[in-house]
């Protein structure tokens, strides 16, 4: 686990990037951790973290010990004795395909989607996760919104008896126009980026990343007279007004996007590479070279009397493929990350990200107040350099988390102040498997640190898997990590978003594993349809059985029709399977 280092030079970037109307001072994590601590609940939490401690050093090192040391964590609530177990189960939601609503604003494959949702109901799923794309709703012109497809989706979920979590996605999806799942930013935003390329993030090589608008221009009217923050706020307000009758009843949660892939982070490496970045062990690049970020860094350096620190990010950080010990900035012994300059830059870089998140949280809290929906935000699961001293991949993403400093607790505190829950992936990943190809990767230790921060700040957690998993071991790992968070004092709220619904989920063996997982998470003896046509079906009611059989019939008929259209030669007698062939894998 990382620990907070003593405060160094205190500075603030508020003069170059604060809200004019805000009465809240702009503070950075090291400052927030001291001044906000008294706002935490008065209940006593004693955190025993003898984790990976080195007898030769005065700090905690991830290099000396295994993941089993995390079992030494103890959260105590003013008493000693066995931990209390939460009695209520954890609901499971399933994320819909990213392209459920087409660019023209209409629902795609509605018959297959309807049958799929009915099947989810029989499995005991609580609801679905619906990504609401900025590039679809406000595609052509600013403040001209088309919610039609999403209204139809919510109505469909309601008819099926499912709840909905909406993800307000202000980022692009896919790798480019040739990607069948490509969803860009709104066209009018891209036009403004063509006029002013500095609206997009840039690294030291001048490479632009257009997944998400640079947070450096949050407060500047760069979008046809509006600032990005105003555009996000207007979008959220219009969403609230459009779906108001359904908020709190059908739509029970809203996750607000805050960066690439919807995560509060910098695009240190492209989102499409994050799924396999641990294989190539990328360090990432600092994204602070657009003119807005550069101006703020320069002003902050001038404010602390060190002009030479304001000419850009670390120039000795190596490249994406270097190991950290081959770089002057990230190396464990004598690296610049652990010098006054490194601390200044990393506090500024992570502080700007924290400020961006706080601005959006403040707007969302005001907009959704009184609607009875739960708000949440997502953090990235960057684990492939967690076992090093400097945690370089986390640093370039904006998380100032090292062997000497906890970079996630300030973020959890900020979410807690605005009533936000925390969403994070990597719940199905296992250290033993990851370390076979990358010895310094540790998704389990990373996740446990994040969950501990959420427990201390008493904020709800939404778990998520990094990529679609269908193996028994991955489901068991999710159960293990959910228990790690849920065991203990109080009544922490945990739920899980399965990522995501595709044709493989409904295949016979995968479906059996999934329904068993849902039952285990819920802690209830719910109905589970056995889709093998050979075993016994034990429904809780006749209506459930009828629903399950009707879903199976529709899905199989759809599959047969697809097979007929593609190749008559493939029409053979075979064991029935629930493969939704019209879904693209996402």
Automatic annotation (TrEMBL):
The active site is at residues 263, 464. It catalyses: Hydrolysis of (1->4)-alpha-D-glucosidic linkages in polysaccharides so as to remove successive maltose units from the non-reducing ends of the chains. GO terms for molecular function: beta-amylase activity. Keywords: Carbohydrate metabolism, Glycosidase, Hydrolase, Polysaccharide degradation. Transmembrane segments: none annotated. One of its GO terms (biological process) is polysaccharide catabolic process. SUPFAM superfamilies: (Trans)glycosidases. Its EC number is 3.2.1.2. Belongs to the glycosyl hydrolase 14 family. This is Beta-amylase.
């Amino acid at each position: 686990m990382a620990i907070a280092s003593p405060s160094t030079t205190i500075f603030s970037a508020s003069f170059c990037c604060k809200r004019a109307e805000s009465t809240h001072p702009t503070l950075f994590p090291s400052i927030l951790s001291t001044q906000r601590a008294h706002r935490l609940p008065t209940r006593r939490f004693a955190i025993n973290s003898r984790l990976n401690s080195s007898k030769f050093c005065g700090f905690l090192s991830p290099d000396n010990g295994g993941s089993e040391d995390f079992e030494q964590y103890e959260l105590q609530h003013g008493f000693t004795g066995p931990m209390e177990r939460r009695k209520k189960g954890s609901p499971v939601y399933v994320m819909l395909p990213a392209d459920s609503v087409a660019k023209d604003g209409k629902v795609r494959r509605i018959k297959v989607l309807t049958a799929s949702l009915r099947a989810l109901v029989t499995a005991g799923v609580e609801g679905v996760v619906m990504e609401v794309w900025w590039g679809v709703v406000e595609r052509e012109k600013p403040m001209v919104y088309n919610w039609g497809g999403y209204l139809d989706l919510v109505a469909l979920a309601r008819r099926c008896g499912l709840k909905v979590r909406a993800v307000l996605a202000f980022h692009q999806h896919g790798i480019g126009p040739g990607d069948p799942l490509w969803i860009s930013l709104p066209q009018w935003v891209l036009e403004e980026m063509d006029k002013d390329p500095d609206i997009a993030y840039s690294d030291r090589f001048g490479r632009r990343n257009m997944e998400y608008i640079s947070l450096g221009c949050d407060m500047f009217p760069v979008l046809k007279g509006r600032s990005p923050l105003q555009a996000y706020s207007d979008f959220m307000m219009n969403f609230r007004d459009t779906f108001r009758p359904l908020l709190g009843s059908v739509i029970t949660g809203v996750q607000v996007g805050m960066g690439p892939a919807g995560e509060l982070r910098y695009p240190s490496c492209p989102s499409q590479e994050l799924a396999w970045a641990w294989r190539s062990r990328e360090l990432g690049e600092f994204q602070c070279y657009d003119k807005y970020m550069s101006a703020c860094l320069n002003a902050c350096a001038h404010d602390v009397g060190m002009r030479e620190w304001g000419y850009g990010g670390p120039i000795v950080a190596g490249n994406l493929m270097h190991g950290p010990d081959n770089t002057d900035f990230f190396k464990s012994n004598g690296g610049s990350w652990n010098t006054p300059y490194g601390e200044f830059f990393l506090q500024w870089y992570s502080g700007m990200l924290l400020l961006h998140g706080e601005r959006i949280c403040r707007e969302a809290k005001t907009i959704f107040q009184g609607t009875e929906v739960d708000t949440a935000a997502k953090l990235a699961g960057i684990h492939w350099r967690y076992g090093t001293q400097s945690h370089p991949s986390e640093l370039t993403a904006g998380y100032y988390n090292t062997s000497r400093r906890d970079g996630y607790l300030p973020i959890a505190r900020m979410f807690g102040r605005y009533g936000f829950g925390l969403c994070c992936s990597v719940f199905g990943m296992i250290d033993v498997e990851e370390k076979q190809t990358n010895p310094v990767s540790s998704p389990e230790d990373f996740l446990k640190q994040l969950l501990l921060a959420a427990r201390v700040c008493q904020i709800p957690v939404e778990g998520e898997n990094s990529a679609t998993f269908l193996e028994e071991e991955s489901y068991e790992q999710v159960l293990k990590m959910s228990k790690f968070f849920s065991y203990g004092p109080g009544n922490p709220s945990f739920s899980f978003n399965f990522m995501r619904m595709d044709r493989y989920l409904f295949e016979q063996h995968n479906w059996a594993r999934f329904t068993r997982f849902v039952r285990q998470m819920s802690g209830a003896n719910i109905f589970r349809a056995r889709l093998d046509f050979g075993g016994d079906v034990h429904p809780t009611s006749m209506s459930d059985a009828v629903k399950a059989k009707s879903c199976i019939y529709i899905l199989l008929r759809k599959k047969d029709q697809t097979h007929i259209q593609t190749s008559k030669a493939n029409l053979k007698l075979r064991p029935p399977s629930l493969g939704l062939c019209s879904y693209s894998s996402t």
